[in-house]
Design a protein that fits this description.
homodimer; 392 residues; Rossmann fold; Dehydroquinate synthase-like, alpha domain; 2 domains; 6-stranded parallel beta sheet; two-stranded antiparallel ribbon; 47% helix; globular
């Protein structure tokens, strides 16, 4: 196990009706003037924004609002948010939505106290200061409610880039699984795929002797394998929604990934898909992740066997472990298909002839990248090709 | 799943040599005058206290010291610590040791800013204010490095009582597994038992639909089942020590126990043993926990089957699940014996004829207690009797 620091100071406020505590929570964490940041109409139509307003009113907290966050949140709206927050003397950002809204809120939070262009932080600069951020989560997926990370897309060129800092960790995150019950099955499945991908990026490691984090990773994965089909079959299943929601947070605070080298190539490879086609991140991951696995599994066949047996319940083929490794990957792709995810370029709406563009945008040139297997641009192209043509 | 709040703001600073960062960490968290609180001579002889002093010196942090914490830490030393901290204008308590030292440090931390008797907080009062506490952990066991809990023994009458508050959560905890390599096998095994007990107290629940926390509990337990015998066989095994140390923290921040009713009767029943005989808490738990399981398993046979199969690798007897449930409990007791733990009163140094005294001190009178099975005083007496006579 490698040395590590683990820090996750967010207060998670979980369960039915907890959004009605927003006002008291903002007060507890020192906010006096809030920017409520959200996405489309669903948060308003569902009455959620009204409940958040009512809770802030009740606690005497002033607020202004900015909606319109899109999936793959854009820098253009972040600039608007920074301007509004400065004009209104906002001292607290409350994200009401999913990963995109939270990431956009974090970007505004770093931008407000910074004299330069907030994009600097998405180009390598480390954030030391930000307005406090909190969240009311409406989809189990990105894990942004418990992380210090944010990913923003620069509209000019659709460049997708991330930043991370402890100052971006939410002060509190309200997590009411009921709020996710109105999500379409497709979005629910995209979120589930994202959660599993967050674990797999950590699970595939070259660090030896990591039993505790291996087991914790598998705990989240087994939960997703059990609970996701239940939610797809019955969107109103609160209990399955609740298990997935907590799994999604545990998957990404890094408690399951500390002390081990991590990979993250699949996320990088996917980012180019969602940037080019504006598809859902989870859907892109469903296409890329099993293809990545097929390309790299020979690097550590026994680790893929462990996944196959412990997560997907495959029988170990002791005479031919490679068969078990491949059975596990196949079971994962089958699982993704069964929950309604695309498994190849056609189903995703991507085009094989764009692969050279995707690889170029990925931008590693003659270098190599990734923590588990160091991939070259040629390797990445091959993974796109496997993904393009994948079948059950 | 039940509604819950989860809050664990401690920064965990894990790995080789990390105690040399104490000075910078105290500074980061605002300390200027530290009380270094520790136990016996081993922390001095090993050079650990010297390294902590050197790190504080290097960062220009002043300090005073108080050693002498015993296992089952006493109120008498807490009073001394409070007096010393006030006299020296201490603004930060640094616990260098295991659960006892940390619990004693937390008691001092609440006592210093409080006008009354600190024991009030161990008699039901809730702490709203405390000096900041941090830890340098030397044994994986109590989980106190990541919790807001503290247990203190009143010397007059050997009354063992606890308190809990978010203000007692350590600001940081330095966790260097190397520091645990010098521990005797017996203490190591006591710590491992305590970690497993923390999980079992959460695992046995009447709350339905808790797949994610079930799986997380099992992740910690599987890790302990694998790694503990390795450490007993080879005390210098850093990797196994590291896995156990992180497992011990995960077991007790409550991340594996949120949203579910918990039991905690075994801890209460054990506390009377360690109070009366001054035995190690983990050793007492090794005697009590399987006896408690034997007394309650019929309440939910399938949950005990799940433990037997998933944690101890038993085969499921689908024709007679009760056999599997009992096989799991038997496997747990065998495991405890194999790592050198006592499994009955004789091996622990307790006496069956003291049972009426133990039950009376447990003090539930005509009431009932516990989250999984509500036990009467008579039930508790029966558990002591099973524990007294247990065999492999």
């Amino acid at each position: 196990m490698n040395n590590f620091n683990f820090y996750s100071p967010t207060e998670f406020v979980f369960g039915k009706g907890r959004e009605n505590e927003c006002g008291e929570l903002v007060k507890k964490y020192g906010g006096t003037k809030v920017l409520i940041h959200y996405g489309g109409k669903s948060a308003i139509k569902s009455g959620l924004i009204d409940r958040v307003r009512a809770s802030l009113d009740k606690s005497g907290i002033a607020y202004c609002e900015l909606g319109g966050v899109q999936p793959n949140p854009r820098d253009t709206l972040v600039y608007k948010g920074i301007e509004l927050a400065r004009k209104e003397n906002v001292d607290f950002i409350l994200a009401v939505g999913g990963g995109s809204v939270i990431d956009s809120s974090k970007a505004i939070a770093i931008g407000v106290p910074y004299d330069g262009d907030f994009w600097d932080f998405y180009s390598g600069k480390h954030a030391e200061k930000a307005l406090p951020v909190a969240t009311v989560l409406t989809i189990a997926a990105a894990g942004s409610e418990g992380s210090g990370d944010s990913v923003i897309t620069k509209e000019d060129g659709m460049l997708k880039r991330g930043t991370g800092s402890d100052v971006l960790r939410p002060r509190f995150s309200v997590m009411n699984p009921e709020l996710t019950q109105t999500l379409p099955a497709y979005q629910t499945a995209c979120g589930a795929t994202d959660i599993m991908a967050h674990v797999f990026e950590r699970y595939f490691t070259n660090t030896k002797e990591v039993e505790i984090t291996d087991r914790l990773c598998e705990a989240v994965l087994c939960t997703m394998v059990k609970e996701t089909p239940r939610v797809i079959a019955d969107p109103d299943n609160y209990e399955a929604r609740a298990n997935i929601m907590w799994a999604g947070t545990v998957a990404h605070t890094n408690i399951v990934g500390v002390g081990r080298e991590q990979d993250w190539n699949s996320h990088g490879i996917e980012h180019e898909l969602s940037a080019l086609y504006d598809c859902a991140h989870g859907a892109g991951l469903a296409v890329i992740m099993p293809a990545w696995m097929e390309f790299v599994y020979k690097h550590d066949i026994m680790r893929f066997c462990q996944m196959a047996v412990r997560v997907f319940g495959c029988n170990m083929d002791y005479a031919d472990p490679e068969k078990t490794a491949l059975a596990g990957i196949k079971a994962f792709r089958r699982f993704l298909h069964d929950i309604g995810m695309p498994i190849n370029f056609t189903e995703l709406g991507a085009k094989e002839e764009d692969i050279p563009v995707l690889v170029e945008k990925f931008g590693i040139g003659d270098g190599r990248t990734g923590g588990f297997v160091h991939l070259s641009a040629q390797d990445v192209a091959e993974i796109y090709r496997i993904a393009a043509r994948a079948a059950l």
